Amino acid sequence: EVHLAESGGGLVQPGGSLRLSCAASGFTFSSYVMSWVRQAPGKGLEWVSHINYDGGRTFYADSVKGRFSISRDNGQNTVFLQMNTLKPEDTAVYYCNARILSRHYWGQGTQVTVSS
Q: Which of 92, 98, 95, 91 is nearest to 108 (CA)?
């Protein structure tokens, strides 16, 4: 059974940093693209970033480019999202996502709140 578990969210002041983690199990982690998606209060899902199977290629939404960095550790079946220079508009629930054989799998999400 596929399982994704995010952690690392919290309350941070504008300009601060957080590092999110997503621990994966139940599938061959090193074979699949992993993504981060967020949902701000009252808004729809927004794709943030994704990373290819071996970590060699990364992609970012314009809204986070230059501030966020995605990485993965295939030995630990974990994907990370380093978030720097956080802004109030980054406040959202952040979800880890894996697309496996045309089906999307999601974690439970972790809340990130950027506020002074």
A: 95
In this predicted model, what pLDDT tens digit does every residue of 71-104 receive, in sequence order?
A: 999 999 999 999 999 999 999 999 999 999 889 9
Q: How far is Cα 42 from Cα 49, in angstroms, rounded to an integer?
A: 21
Which helix (H) or strand (E) is 51 found in, with range? strand 45-51
Find, among 65, 58, 84, 75, the residue nearest to 24 by Cα. Answer: 75
30 three-class SS:
helix
How many whole angstroms separate alpha carbon 92 and alpha carbon 74? Answer: 26
Q: How confident is the model at residue 48 (pLDDT cuts 50, 70, 90)?
A: very high
Query: Cα–Cα distance between 46 and 62 in angstroms, integer?
Result: 11
